[in-house]
Amino acid sequence: MKYLFIDASESTTCVQAGDSSKYFNQTFNTSRNLAACLTSICDEMLDKAGLKLEEIDVFAVGTGPGSLTGLRVANSFLRTLAFMGQKALVGIDLFTWSVATLKAQGQTGLVRLVTPTLIDKAFSVDADLSRDIGQFTPDPKLVDNRAASPEKPNFGIRWQAEGIAKLEPTPEVLHELIKLQQPCREFSEMLQILPLYIIPSQAERKLEEKPC
Amino acid sequence: MLTLGIESSCDDTSIAVIENGTRILASLVSSQIEIHRRFGGVVPEIASRKHLEAILPLLRETIEKSGIKISQIGQVAVTAGPGLSGPLLTGLSCAKAVAWHLKIPLIPVNHLEAHLTASFLANERLPEYPFLGLIVSGGHSNLVIAKGPRGYETLGYTVDDAPGELFDKVARHLQLGYPGGPIIQKTGEGANPKKYELPRPMAGKGYLFSFSGLKTAVVRLCETEGDKLDLPALCAALQLAVADTFSRKVGNALKESGLKRLVIAGGVAANRPLREELARLAEAHQAEFLMPSIHLCTDNAAMIAAHGFISADLAPQNAILVNAAANWDMGAPFNF
Predict the structure, then answer these.
(1) Which of A52, A77, B224, B329 has its CB 3.0 to 4.6 Å from that of B93, i.e. a possible disulfide?
(2) Tens digit of each residue's pLDDT (9 = 90 or more) over B127-165
(3) Contact between chains at B97 and A73 (C-beta distance less than 8 A)
(4) Which pTM value belongs to this model?
């Protein structure tokens, strides 16, 4: 299985291309320029992996949480590529990738994963690392502060604060996760793969606050 | 040559296939009006979300409706600006995927330039230059001399609100609903447009436009009239003020430039009093008058494809690396 993955949840973009035995991973400093360099960074990664676009079986895309613009750019690009080539699409949830990384690092028990948002709130997910990764379904809560849980170890995804250790999801784990995921091949299934963890816009929040 | 057009600059997702720049094989629009109505205007974050949901099903449906195979597409034209960043990026990323997969050229298109081409497309013609162009929409009010597909001399623009924005704001103030243009036109039908005297903003000040004062005048009139307000007459008077403002300046531009072709475009070009007034004006100046059909007035991908077709030779070789530009003047360089 040959794949091409993009995670654009941050100002840098993580791209990985590989097949069942090897992979190549690189982080590009795309800043606010991802849409401009989409094809050039993918060309570069396919070259490194010795792959051609038409050989790709599975397109994999990060579904967040993170920069909604970046996630949408990558999603629109990879989803269209999957449609054009009638190939499969996989969504990679950053919480799942992070939990799988913690398990691979030998961490056990209950943990809390935290990732900040732009509206001074954070997404927080509690995970039981004794369970199989296939059974993990993130159930994030949008919490008002970034305070750590006093009872369990806390990990910030690519981010750290007092009482919260930085966790960097790894390429090795991603490689295994992509192989493990059930890819979507049906058009209707593909349409379900969208950026998750939407934060309501200011206009939506205002409307919600309005008395009926 | 088959051109695929993709448009997502504001709240309409649209995809079209046209042949040789003039024949529309399919042109579909997924509108978000109902979603944004409750906010009284377009919410960029929601628009981005909805574009992403709509774009792929629309691409598939457009290809099916056009009766072609996707591999027959020869080039992809996409709106690269001006517009809302998030929505633009969704369309651009989709277009790049199609072009990259098929190994065909990507043509970044300026949305405003394409609006002018829509008036020719409505008549199944390729644009003939030069002409005087007036683009009137929710975000723009531009008076230009079009010299070529990517060559424009800007004569005038709005210094504050665009006419569509004026209609939206007035409709919101009068609690008529959203979008304002069609509602104000419907409400004002058959009413006396001269019952109320509204100002003609920036009259005698060259080719610049301003519509925020007109909105204030409407608000004050509502306060003065109170319960006696004749709503249909007010809507008719507002449209007359807008049409008259454009008519005076466009008339001056036709006289000064000596151009014999007038083209109007944009969402507000669907406004009947404005269309009728400018048609009269063109006739008085013995100029050909071109306006888009109602379907081609609003944002659509057919005009993007048509403009991509005529400007393909002017697109840079490395256009696949272009970025979206929220602000992009007509004729200005591409955003790399």
Answers:
(1) A77
(2) 999 999 999 998 899 999 999 999 999 999 999 999 999
(3) no
(4) 0.94
